[in-house]
From TrEMBL:
Keywords annotated in UniProt: Membrane, Transmembrane, Transmembrane helix
Species of origin: Streptomyces olivochromogenes
Signal peptide: none
The name this protein goes by in its record: MFS transporter
Gene3D superfamilies tied to this protein: MFS general substrate transporter like domains
Amino acid sequence: MAAGYLEILRARHAARLLAGTLTGRLPNAIAAIAVVLFVRAEGGTYSLAGALAAVYGVGNAVGQPLLGRLVDLYGQPRVQLPAALVSALGMGVFAFSGTDPLPVAYLSMVVAGLFTPPLEGGLRALWPSVLRREEQVHTAYAMDAVAQEVMFTVGPLLLTLCASLWSARAALLILNVVGVLGALSVVLSPPSRAWRSAPREAHWLGALRSPGLLALLGAFLFVGIALGSITVAAVSYADDHGGDAVYGWLMAAVGLGALVGGTAYGARRWSGAPERRLRVLVALLAVCYLPLVLMPGAVAMTALAALAGVFLAPCIACAFIIVDRHAPRGTVTEAFSWLVTTFTVGASVGTGLAGPVVERGGAVWGFALPGAAGAAALVVLLATGRVLAATGDGPVVAVSSENDPNRAVEPRFSSGDRA
């Protein structure tokens, strides 16, 4: 199973790009928790902490596709590194000024969120030029999805460790400096410096002019809702079954399930159109959410939470392939960033929906929401099947100029070669 992943990591620059991207994304992975810890350490209320974290999230959702479009237009180093520096500066101002004056705190969160560099979309745009063979690229997408689960598990642990050793302010500053160093490692790499987007048609909608991409985003909005609603329903369940420790085990189990599922998914080569495969994966994802409404004891519930996460990473990895198939020429980074944004917005919507649902109907109805959202995602995919079946632009061949061997153009695979 590990052979495919080791083959990817042995490819020139691959390990550096993956490690640098994950490190560069640490500030984003821990932002919400870091803001809450810092605001509470400063004596602020949970409401204020939540509001500041929400402002960061909105800024991030707006900034990712906009910065992704700039990357497609001007290249990675000219956008990613300045964005990382400005985002870290915003967090630095917040760390030193605190919550007083309040307008400065909110403005800092807007800047930090809006300028979060689109490293995630940038890495997926780089994989084809680094790996060349399509089956390796698909494996890399799966590995990327698995690595995300590790990052979102390790990131909060690093944050709490730094906060306990020094302070919440120090943790905020240190992890943002580490994030800049990660972004620097990526943009100084030869693949990032050489990468150029394919020639694009000028259009104000950018990647969103692709009907197939819009269909995929519609489905993944509901996948995000499903994941976001679990986090709230699990709090309600944990309140009656052991408190914070049980909640931690449930969330860790979801991540572990995604880790196992993504690892298994990427370990084999899949045949057939990824659009059809995604429908199957989303259906399995929705089915695996349903047992959560049984709400057994804590041990059995932890096992069900792990089951609920098994098909999450495979769905994300498969979606990456579909984004690459449907993104209009010259918009691949923007298209990947739209997927990230849509999933993030969906998770926020799911959190907001689950709150009143749990208050009125209890945890059982909160756990019914992920299954319903998963079913809605499947309905979207089924209703737009004909749109998704039609791939976007024709093939673009990966080339390097003989006069400039470091100049690489965004590769795309022809529909006849795609698995």
